[in-house]
# Entry
Amino acid sequence: MMERLQRLRATLVEQALPAMLLTAPTSRRYLSGFTGSAGALLISAEAAFLLTDGRYTVRAAAEAPAFTLREVRAAVKPMPKLVAELAAELGLSRLGFEAAAMTVAEYQQFTKALGEAIELVATENLVEELRMVKDTGEIELLRRAAAITDAALAAVLPVLSPEMTEREAAWRIEMALHERGADGPSFPIIVAAGRNSARPHHEPGHDVLGEGQPIIIDMGARLDGYHADLTRTIVLGQPDDTFRAVYAATLAAQQAAIRALRPGLPWAEADAIARRVIEEAGYAHGIAHSLGHGVGLAIHEAPWLRITVPDAPPSPPLQAGMVTSVEPGIYLPEWGGVRIEDLVLITADGCEVLSQAPR
# Structure
């Protein structure tokens, strides 16, 4: 954790910020190790405070020994008042905050408590950029989460039947994840059969899986805060010619992108490689989303493997240690869809596919 703190402090120097208030749950966990659901971090060049309420003080002391604990008491010393007191103790005139994690109401409460002497400065993605490159411990957790996901899918596939509903299949997958050591699913599991598979984020319902039609299964294990993400598209019975063609194009797009992944490749170019394969196969109209996204403490985080809009800044490059999904899809509303997704680690000279489930 100390290395992460030092990296954040170096970033604060670059941003000319003497201190930072962090309220995003992923930021709290990444920088301190604290897993509670409520609290904030106040970090300066010399100080590191963890602010939480009485429900979590024992846990906070155990999980975040590098931080000085301060207790929030809603009736006596609510979070804004406590932050104002600590900021005054530190002699701060400017305090950064995570714009995406603070509501307008919270901002108003903090500005009132801080008064005119301390300026709140909005920041974007400071910790998210630190989290993009995973350390060895994070990579090991992601590797284990991917293995649990693979094993859960392997356990469930043989028991799927045409009469089973999407909802029942999703529940069996969730149970299988727990039984193999997951803390829970990374996100609500998607099982989408037939035409429902043309909806990338379909919610499982009472439709049956059926025979001879595409079934998209999107799932992942959550382990110690880290997420896996895996999608397979299957058919119970015999696939038709449309399935074979759409599946072949989707798999070719995914494999072309994976072969190209390496440090220095712009995020947008990875998306463009897969997109070109799908377009050349005649399914440009079936593209509904970008190629992929980073995975870690959040199920969707940087890097973002997507095309850039005109006049946008150049796409950043991939770096060794990044972990991203690679998930092209083709969606045809009158028929269904196909998506194939794997978790991929960018290595020093290329990439490693962490997901091992058969395609």
Remarks:
- Residues 136-156 form the longest helix (21 residues).
- Residues 16 and 328 are 40 Å apart (CA to CA).
